[in-house]
Specification:
about 350 residues; Beta Polymerase, domain 2; Methane Monooxygenase Hydroxylase, Chain G, domain 1; 2 domains; 8 helices; about 15% strand
Length: about 350
């Protein structure tokens, strides 16, 4: 898929090494912070990672969002201050990590894939997102800085909505929920593509359509790999007995689990449709081949008696009565035309043509 960046792991590195390709990097990173409660709200772009540290143990809820994983120094400083295990930091940098959840008592680590359409006529974008859920804070790490799907949540926080009355666990739910909602948008677009391709396939199966089916199948494999493990994450959050997840948030987590199951079921349905489209393509090719063979067989069958008649009178024996007959030529043509007419009537009656 376009837009996917791979970070190969160098063999031999110690577990928990905070590097990219075996090296420490200092690429661009953007840190934004929202601090709020029911009556207070602050939002700002942070210049240095140290500016976030005083908000660790406040009574308010603090959401720190890190855009870009290129600066390992920032990730390491954040991990040291919030006591994040090095193996978790390594997973945050590993954009190929499957969605999962880990409860480490003082915080909960979550990782999943943010999926969204790239635009008209473009492919989908898949981005690695990680969350560190603490008692009064939530840290989100995004793979890139090209934007996200969290703007509706930011707008709800600014408007003093229900989200301001809940804790960091509800904030984590809201962010995951908006990611899952975008799964529905991607899958809805995918369903439209599948239905249009299926209609075109029934009308005219071409090699170009086969290539489109193959591309669609690759896209479904990527989506399935990105979404399927999220069922375990949603179920783990719902059943978790961690004190970080309040009782009044669990009902929302049950709804989130239901949404994830619905996404997975829809994805499996589309997968079966694409598999069926491949069968339709092969059946269509077989049908067209059978029709061609049928036409050629009928033509050959018609010409067999004509070839016999023409062969008999093409032997040029000296004593053949019809050769010297005045109307022999026209009679032979009449017989051959009559044979063709009788055969066509017979084929039509048997519904072969």
């Amino acid at each position: 898929m376009p837009g996917r960046r791979k970070r190969p792991i160098r063999p031999g590195l110690s577990p928990g090494t905070i590097t990219i390709n075996g090296e420490h990097t200092k690429g661009p990173v953007r840190i934004t912070m929202m601090d709020y409660d029911a009556s207070h709200f602050t939002e700002k772009v942070v210049g240095t990672v140290e500016e976030c540290f005083p908000y660790r143990d406040t009574a308010t809820v603090t959401w720190i969002n890190v855009d870009g994983l290129e600066n390992t120094e920032v990730i390491e400083k954040m991990g040291n201050h919030y006591c994040i295990h090095p193996l978790i930091l390594e997973d945050i940098l590993n954009v190929g990590q499957r969605p999962k959840m880990e409860d480490l008592d003082d915080y909960i680590y979550l990782t999943l894939k943010m999926i969204r359409p790239a635009g008209p006529g473009a492919d989908i974008q898949v981005e690695h997102v990680s969350f560190i859920l603490g008692q009064s804070f939530l840290i989100s790490f995004q793979e890139g800085a090209a934007g996200d799907v969290f703007d509706p949540v930011r707008a709800r926080i600014r408007k003093e909505g229900r989200i301001r009355k809940f804790g960091s666990d509800y904030l984590a739910y809201a962010l995951i929920d908006v990611i899952v909602d975008n799964y529905f948008l991607v899958i809805e677009k995918l369903e439209e593509d599948v239905e249009g391709l299926e209609e075109e396939l029934v009308r005219n199966a071409t090699p170009a359509l086969l290539q489109e089916i193959a591309a669609l199948k690759r896209r479904l494999i990527l989506l399935r790999r990105s979404i399927w493990p999220l069922r375990e994450v949603a179920a783990g959050l719902e059943r978790s007995d961690s004190p970080l997840i309040k009782e009044n948030t669990r009902i929302y987590l049950r709804e989130l689990h239901d949404h994830v199951i619905q996404v997975v079921d829809t994805l499996e349905t589309i997968r079966e449709m694409v598999t069926g489209m491949m069968d339709i393509y092969l059946s269509s090719l077989s049908y067209r081949m059978n029709e061609i063979m049928k036409v050629l067989t009928l033509i050959a069958t018609i010409f067999i008696p004509l070839t016999f008649v023409a062969g008999v009178y093409g032997m040029n024996f000296e004593y053949m009565p019809e050769l010297s007959w005045e109307y022999g030529y026209f009679t032979v043509w009449g017989v051959m035309i009559a044979i063709v007419a009788v055969m066509l009537v017979y084929f039509r009656k048997r519904q072969w043509v």
